[in-house]
Amino acid sequence: MTKLEYTFKSDTLFKMLFVQYPELLKKLVSNLLHIRLESIEQFEITNPEIPPDNLGDKFCRLDINMIVNSRRVDLEIQVRNDGDYPERSLYYWAREYSAALSEGEQYSDLPRVVIISILHFNLFECAEFHSEFLTLEATRHTLLTDKLSLHYYELPKLPALVGPDDELMLWLKLFQAETEEELKQIEALEVPIMEKAIGAYRSITATNEFKEIERLRAKARHDEASALGHARREEREKWQGVVAEKDEEIAKLRDQMAKLQSELEHRSGGDN
């Protein structure tokens, strides 16, 4: 197996690929949201830039924000499970939703905001790889509003085999791919949109621009890991020093108690 140097889960590749090839993004979104491609009349990427000043910042998010038929759509990819992703994705929705209200507009003017998260880990205890959350009444399941929609796609739950007629699964298999052989298996199905996506992948990953951005992103991750490791070592050394100091104090107390015990025994013997 030949491991891919860069995968579709790389946020750098994710951003560059779909910004430079918006027709691929439009097709992906139609599959992820289960809407017909022909029905998408309005499609705009609202954050196409990659902020150069923030690339070395570990908190830099390379997500894709869009307007799709008046809906605000945020497409995220998340590789690591930090234990707080449900709260984070809800925060992303809240930020997009609150920012959509301009001065003088009514609350009813707020658009529907959709957060799509492609996850490289299991988030929910269920067999389904796709989950959508809405605002429903707890007993009657009545929809409060259609303004909130949170989609989660969990890649580890995908089936092993996928046919050429299921484009959504093929997209997700691209995001899941770790080896060159997996990409070639998808190419062998001869699905035009997949061939175009893989061709775009090979083209972008060969550019110096992509390699430099990925180098900065990798450096940020390395710096984060190094800083965390240094902090842990300092904390461990600090507590080791505290333990050694306490051990020394305990040893002194034991010596004092031993001396006191000896004096008491000596006095007791003298009284006899």
How many beta strands in the DSSP annotation? 6
Low-confidence stretches at least 5 residues in length (pLDDT < 50)?
Answer: none
Portion of residues in beta strands equals: 15-25%
Radius of gyration: 28 Å
Q: How confident overall, as mean pLDDT?
A: 89
- The structure class reads alpha/beta
What does this structure look like?
The protein is of the alpha/beta class and 272 residues long. A hairpin with a 2-residue loop joins strand 2 and strand 3. Helix 1 (11-20) crosses helix 2. It has helices spanning 11-20, 22-32, 85-99, 167-176, 180-187, 192-205, 208-271, and strands at 43-45, 64-68, 71-78, 113-119, 130-136, 143-154. The radius of gyration is 28 Å and the shape is elongated. The mean pLDDT is 89.
Give the secondary structure arrangement, pairings included.
Blueprint: H1 11-20, H2 22-32, E1 43-45, E2 64-68, E3 71-78, H3 85-99, E4 113-119, E5 130-136, E6 143-154, H4 167-176, H5 180-187, H6 192-205, H7 208-271
Parallel strand pairs: 3-4, 4-6
Antiparallel strand pairs: 1-2, 2-3, 5-6
Helix pairs in contact: 1-2
List the main descriptive attributes of the protein structure presented here:
7 helices; elongated; alpha/beta
Give a summary of the structure in a few sentences.
This protein is of the alpha/beta class. The protein is built from 7 helices and 6 strands; from the N terminus they run ααβββαβββαααα.
